[in-house]
Design brief:
220 residues; alpha/beta; seven-stranded mixed beta sheet; 7 helices; 7 strands
Length: 220
């Protein structure tokens, strides 16, 4: 059977300004056509009493649908949006700290203990949207107050859920991770690849291999 035409695959656009998510996708071989910028900012405030899993799924979906209003988005483009939350050992959902003092509070409460990190991913073109949720457990080392404050003063944790970035300076705080490490950074790659494949988007190296096969097939 002749392989399906790959010249009309939909383009991938990110409904996210996160350089970490972009880097993860590019590391896996995905070509990102652009970033869809929503005309309005999504309010990421957590609702009182809302379960963390539901909040992450809601926010990922809201980010995707807001980005669909970007006039620069081409017809047929596939969007990927995500939201990551840290859940304290007491079950408190943690988004990004509001200021340095909040970052100190967050990281101090996580130091020396295990906690969950969840990332919700939404993929689709507006008509068909699928979502998944990935969960990992991170164990941080004991940290004294001076270390926590010195880290917060670097500015790194101020835009990170839970007040730390596993892919940055805080990597030396992490004793072990149970689950998908890429999900802790901000995007579960294996689950995201599966979602994107169902929308017709796959890594460029897969298309290159298929093109070679098509050439060989047509010459037979």
């Amino acid at each position: 059977m002749i392989p399906a035409d790959i010249s009309r695959r939909p383009t991938l656009w990110l409904a996210s300004g996160s350089p970490r998510r972009r880097a993860l996708l590019e590391q896996a071989g995905f070509v990102i056509a652009g970033r869809a910028v929503p005309p309005r900012e999504v309010d990421e405030t957590l609702r009182p009493g809302e379960p963390a899993e539901r909040a992450a799924m809601r926010l990922a979906g809201e980010k995707l649908f807001a980005a669909l209003d970007d006039p620069a988005l081409p017809e047929g483009a596939v969007l990927l949006a995500a939201d990551t939350l840290v859940i304290s050992p007491e079950g408190e959902p943690m988004g990004k700290p509001v200021d340095a003092a909040d970052a100190v509070r967050m990281l101090s409460s996580l130091a020396g203990r295990g906690h969950r990190v969840i990332t919700a991913v939404a993929v689709g073109d507006g008509e068909d949207v699928e979502e998944i949720l990935a969960s990992s457990t991170v164990h941080l080392a004991e940290l004294d107050e001076a270390t926590v404050r010195a880290y917060v003063e670097t500015g790194e944790p101020l835009d990170k859920a839970g007040g730390y970035g596993i892919q940055g300076l805080a990597a030396c705080f992490v004793e072990r991770v149970e689950g998908d490490c890429s999900a802790v950074v901000g995007l579960p790659l294996a689950a995201s690849r599966a979602l994107l494949a169902r929308s017709g988007v796959r890594p460029a190296w897969m298309d290159r291999g298929e093109k070679e096969y098509q050439r060989e097939f047509s010459n037979e």
